[in-house]
Amino acid sequence: MAVTAYMEAGLETQILGIQAQANSFAEGVMGSVRTVHAFEMRSRLVRKFDEYLTEAHKVGNKISPLFGLLFSSEYCIIYLGFGLAFWQGINMLGRGEIDSSGEIFTVLLSVVIAAVSLTALAPNMIEFTRAASGAAQLFSLIDRQSAIDPFDESGERPLEVFGHITLKNVDFAYPSRPGVKVLDDFSLNIPAGKVTALVGQSGSGKSTIVGLIERWYETSSGSIKLDGRSIVDLNTDWLRKNVRLVQQEPVLFQGSVFDNIAHGLIGTQWQNATKEVQLAKIQDAAKMAFAHDFISELPEGYETQIGQRGGLLSGGQKQRVAIARSIVSEPKVLLLDEATSALDPHAEGIVQQALDRASEGRTTIVIAHKLATIRKADNIVVMKKGKIVEQGTHESLIASDGAYAQLVRVQQLNLKPSDTDSESDKMDAADEEGDPADVVKMMSKIATKDRTRMELALDRDDYDKHKQLGFVTVVLRLIKESPELRWTYFLVLVGCVGAAGAFPGQAILLANVTNVFTLTGSAMIERGNFYAAIFIVLAAGCFISYFILGYATNIVAQTLSHTFRRQSFDDMLRQDLQFFDRQENNTGALASRVDSNPQAILELMGFNVGLILIAVLNVLACSILGIVYSWKLGLVVVLAGLPPFIGSGWFKIRFDAKLDRNISKRNSISAAIASEAVNAIRTVSSLAIEQSVLDKYLIELDKAVNGSIKPLFSMMVWFALTQSIEYWFLALGFWYGCRLVSFNEINMFEFFVTFMGVFFSGQATSLLFQFSTSMTKGKNAANYIFWLHELQPIVQETPDNANKAPKSGGPIVLDHVRFSYPLRPDTQVLRGVDLEIKKGQFAAFVGASGCGKSTMIAMLERFYDPSTGNIRIDGDDLTSINPRLYRSIVSLVQQEPTLFQGTIRENIALGIDDSSSSAGLASKSSTTVGTNVADQDIEDALKAANAWDFVSSLPEGLSTPAGSNGTQLSGGQRQRIAIARSLIRSPKVLLLDEATSALDTESEKIVQSALAEAAKKGDRITIAVAHRLSTIKDADVICVFYGGKIVEVGTHLELIAEGGMYKKMCEAQSLN
């Protein structure tokens, strides 16, 4: 057993390692579900996920012979021990070494009882080895020493901070790419209290400087000092609390607006202040970040829940909340990494003024591609390939007419003087006092039937309202849904019948053994040797039965685990966006379910289900045996003992199921916190809130523990009954059996057969309910998997639309479109949008953050359907078209680009639709993502996205790993890869939601030119949401959104001439 357990532990460790990779991949995909839907990636990502599962399945199958040996050897040795003990005892009695047969019988019964107890050891050995394998990895992680530990109390904590930062001869290369220098002998002086701006190409090292100041990495050589002290000598937690960061892609946490901004107060003098004091401080920061007005209009103001990663807020709103979070603590050093990239021009202008005020008296480092935001900087540093090209003020750099001046010319907007300033100011005032669409609170004008339909849809997505299937029904359905295992199930049944048959056989054998003691001399020894040989036969039978059982049940368990992991992942990705909008369906909770539910089924349908079936067969066989040999004794004990046994067991299972559901729900909350923190680790570390996150996580764990005490106590009361009732009816059986023997109604042989049958029946029943936890976990897990599999998305392919595809890709017509998000039906985001976009047109959507622009993109991608009105393409309503065929002609590049775990090649290849016949699909036989797309097609897409130069310069080129969520690349590099992914499918409709916000000016110009040229050649409709107005000034039609409606439509020059909201936005971004 020790040898097999050791070997199994090694294999389990391998499986855990593979599954960890699979879980990481699944979690990354779950957090990027919009991208998955937009590119119809589901089948390809499921295949990629299945590659991990297949590898784990192969390793898992190697455990089968080990399980067979583990169980068969245990039971075989037990029965061989019976035979040996009996044989030795009879011979010792015959030689006179033992005085009486009673001593032999006492030893035999002791061995029997010990053996029954030992049989419970093998199943638990499986759990022990799995736990040991998991613990080994866990302890390895716990024992790992962090090179930069935020919990380390050592280091200097200066009493005063001035904010003077110097970088001297800094060299740096990321650990994952040590051969690529990001900073090369870089030196820079950043004076205290001044604003220093960093500009340059994507990947030139700007964000790397921020990472080094935050001490996410150590420099390869050179030094970074704060007020003359090396940051290496400073306490890490102190440093990060005095240096605040707003990142290019703002990350908010699940909770309220108040909770998110309050994260910036942790570790400051306001951390333990009253909520009123904190709220006043938070409101001041929100006002400074131009966020107070929209927050106040939210349904619950600062207490409004903003969803996972702030998903219920627009991109601009998220960024303003992130800015408020960073400035609320009044830091001495402020790092702004594209902090205003997601803001509309009007909001950006006001936030920029606020940041200018906030920067007074503190050191501010600004990274920006919108040069209008840094023209007032005290020093502008132009970077290229990790070096400084030039530096100076805006005016001095313009005068020198170098690299910076060239960037300025590219971004300059064409503004003609006009006498409409007063009208523009009036519109601006209206905008400032206006009501962005997603914060307008109004009575829903949706018809009653639509309201009912939405409520039914919400109920449909609620698992708690799903009717639970019983345990037997669940097991039968699991068997039914795996027909490929029918012969394996037959082997399981054969093994169970053989193993269960050993118990009544043993009862008869032990009863016969008692008759041997009535004999004497050679007859006793001869008869004793015969029964000792029967024990050997019984041991051989058990060895065969349990080997078959152990081998076959592991095959079943590994196959079902593989099947349902894949199915769960597939079923989750099949759901529409409404499913993922629900709070309980956050990324961490779903990723946890993908792992834990199939694992629960593995544990149930593995050896446990075999032991459960053996126990049931054992109870039936031994009960029948007892009744057959002595119907009076058998009936009295069975009818008196089994009902309370089964009743207490039923109650135990019921409480166990309730406990498991509660723990699962509570653990999903803690899992969500952990997942959210790990995925946003840069935000967590920059805010120095590691301890706060850990405390929050521990609170949820404590809630799970405290919430389980009461149901656990109730469950254990019933469990205690299941384990003690056995002795009550054994006592009854012994007392009543002796009475029957004393009245000569049965003989000793019949008594022993019946009594031993009752004994083994009781042991089997008590063993049965020891598996109730496995039974309830497996039942609950299977119920969720079945519910998820049956859950149908609202937007899906149906028999009616299966072959309905867009005719030619235009025009697109929106007819009085109104829309409310399903979880906020009383808040209309779009309030009657009418628009026609013709073939080949470039349409741009601009307006204040939260006015409905990104919602329009979501509607055009058909993530949601309109509440009223309709969207048509080629005259066909989108709801009548197959969503998969429609999305095959549409490409989306989002404001926060999403890349997946894998290489750059694989990420770009995901842009090709499986059913597409586009160039580059050389073969359909390969299951590996990216192998069916020609490198030339990928190269062409990268060139169009101005990404080929940086990709080809990487040591591994297209095979370079992008990292989880693309973390191995800079923000601009990620966005260019995302653009290349969208272009490789040659879309007829291209949707750009702030697609070039993270690009440097030079890259943006090249990409814009490539997009415009491709659009003209292929009659492509391009729809862009943009805050950087220089990127859309050449659009054929510009739509200005306000309050969920289009209030201005025209070309750049037409709208400038009108002197309305658009002109005011342009003035805010002008570099003049």
List the helices and strands and how they pair.
Elements lengths: L1 H29 L2 H6 L3 H20 L1 H32 L6 H18 L2 H23 L21 E8 L10 E8 L4 E6 L5 H8 L7 E6 L2 E2 L5 H7 E4 L10 H6 L12 H14 L3 H5 L18 H13 L5 E5 L7 H15 L3 E5 L11 E6 L2 E6 L1 H7 L2 H9 L9 H12 L15 H13 L10 H10 L5 H31 L4 H54 L2 H5 L5 H43 L1 H49 L1 H6 L3 H53 L5 H21 L3 H19 L21 E9 L7 E10 L4 E6 L5 H8 L7 E6 L2 E2 L5 H5 L2 E4 L10 H6 L25 H10 L3 H6 L17 H13 L5 E5 L7 H17 L3 E5 L11 E6 L2 E6 L1 H7 L2 H9 L3
Mean pLDDT: 81
Gyration radius, in Å? 36 Å
Q: Describe the sheet with the most strands.
A: 6 strands, mixed
Strand content: 5-15%
Structural class: alpha/beta
Low-confidence stretches: 417-454, 916-927
CATH homologous superfamily placement of the largest domain: ABC transporter type 1, transmembrane domain
State the shape: elongated
Distance between the termini: 81 Å
Q: Which strand order does the major sheet show?
A: 6-7-8-3-9-10
Looking at how many chains there are and whether they match, the oligomeric state comes to single chain
